[in-house]
Amino acid sequence: QDDELKYTLKRLVEGLGATREAARPGFSLALAQVLQAFEEIPICSVLEQIKEKHNLEKVKKKLVRNAAFGNFFGVMALFQSGRLVKDQQALLGSIQLLQQLANHQAHLRDLPRKTLIDIVSEIPESVFEEVLFGILQSDLASAFTSPENLHLLLVGIRKFPTVLKPKKLKKLFGSPTVVNEENIPRLVELLQSAAKSEKKDKKLPSVAFDLLQVSLKENAFELFWEEGVENGLLKEKSGPSSYMCYRLLGSALPLLSLDQLQMVLKGKVMQHYGEHVVTTQLPDRFKFAPEMEGYIEEFLSSCDDSERQLTVMIGFSTLTNQGNPVFSSSSRVVRHLQPVVLQQYVGWLKDMFLRPDFDCCLDFCSNRQKQNQENANVAQHKVARLRKWIIHRLANIIESTVKKEESLVMDISRFCFFHAFFEAKKKTSQINEANVLPAEPLDEQAHSVAENYFFGLLQTLNTMTVLGDTAKAAALREKHIHGVTADGKLWIFLLVEYANKLLSSEHVKAVKPFTKEQRDAWERTLQSVKKLQKENKSDSAKVVAFQQLLLLMAIHLFKNQSETMDVLSDLLNCTERAFSKESKKKKTDNTEPGWVEVMVEILLSLLAQPSLLIRRISKSVFVRICPNLTKRGLQLILDVLDPYQEQNEESAVVVMEESDKKIKSAQDTDEEGNEDSSDEGDSESDSGDEEKNEEVDDDFRSQLMNVLQAGNALV
């Protein structure tokens, strides 16, 4: 067995310097595993065997590269075995060998120095002081000659503060601190060198991060940031240096105090980062925004300090390009905010919407924008861009997975609704949204933008799971009920109630005032909804269907008054017939269509609308009225689904498989708020035939419900 072990060691040591580059790490790993498994093998003897086999002085010139790698991978194997730091003699020999290998930069580049730093970071302080400090003293003294030597010093200062005290540092290189005015120029040069040598890695070089940490330890962060980063690295205007600055900014967030965060977030690096995001053209150039968002997310998820969380959120939200924040309005980092911070952030967003304060913003313009801007409209343009971003940010907070209270959701919904469809005539404490008047009145475009995002928000509310930690809320979630509060009320119903309060107030006015006919329809809708809420629970599916559709059409009165009036009028008449006592009796006169047929025609017309919300609610209503479907109602569906029907081609609905692109387009239409299509799908297609109002048999109705619930034909 001893012979086999010796042979194994011999073959593995030889393989460390193999000509095939891919084989060397394999031999190194295998050797590490053997040394780990057989602790009786002396580490020193293996080190001597490596040095003898791959002797750099005796090897032929053409094999120097292989020998250099043989030595390097040999030390790596000893280190990875976990036994090197336990054997002081082998540790000393390995460090000396790595120092010798550092002279072969043509072959090994900076690998020996990096490995030396890794080993130093793993050893105990006593071993560093007693064994290694003596042989590393020259490297530490020449810390300002290369990024690797500087990194070694920084690791030593962080790991062994009692050994590398200020007095000892002064003896080594003449100053008791690393970060000072005298050393800044040289530190900048070393950071630039590190940035260029590691630019392909697309990460912050370790030496830069360690220097950041040491500057904080020496209470010299402000000097390092202002002179070293902003007036040093950033001024070079090269890609690697700029990216190093951005990564230093992101990496520094968890380490800084509140005052330091405020300084950094209003500094030159932030502005430079904003300009980079706005001007960089993909796909040829690397855009840093996703990486920065990762830094922000990491900070927010690990930070327990609410003030620092809020400072970072506001800091990135006030980095603006002509009023439009560079920070994405749909960023998911808000999910890590503490509830109190989320509440404060929403309050700040609302306040900035009403009273835009560009003095607190770090605003900039690109060169092209400076050339194209018209001085007269710049201020209004900036306000419009900021308000658009804020409304989308608020709507997106409701959509995000952040833990939020029902009161916050309602607060945001009311705010968006008010500024989409109303404006305050004078301040009033009776309505929160009218308690503060906008410093700059909203124009037609601002109302339109708010309107567009409100309907996207309404779609989110309709599909949102029940919020809250109560038993009732948990029970509703188990039943997969969406679009309601914890007490079972529809979100859309609460918004209609709020809208009614606004219509009744003398302190506010609608952007598009209702005519008498439209106001009557509104009042009639509210009365119908209240009656439906009192209906027998045995017919709950039908009640919910009518209630949801009535409320949706009521909200749409504020957007598309003339088109909505026709549908709403038919829907109100249909509701009255569906829930009147006569409708429950068997009819003898079949010339007039029943309420189910009228409802089917309404729903078919709504399914042709571009609004995703209207189509989804129409689909859910279809499912709920299936138990009441008649043969004539079914025929109406089949008629519009028949692509070969020549009669009434203009009103026919052609069903086809939509591509992902078209579906996304429909979603965008609803979110971005393009005007709803005015195509009507409810034109009469009566051929004059009289059919008996026969009930569809139960088996067929059950099959039809399954098909409709699948939803493939209705989307």
From TrEMBL:
Molecular functions (GO terms): RNA binding; sequence-specific DNA binding; transcription corepressor activity
Keyword DNA damage assigned: no
Compositionally biased residues, Basic and acidic residues: 658-667
Signal peptide stretch: none
Subcellular location: Nucleus
Keyword Metal-binding appears in the UniProt entry: no
Record's protein name: Myb-binding protein 1A-like
Organism: Nestor notabilis (Kea)
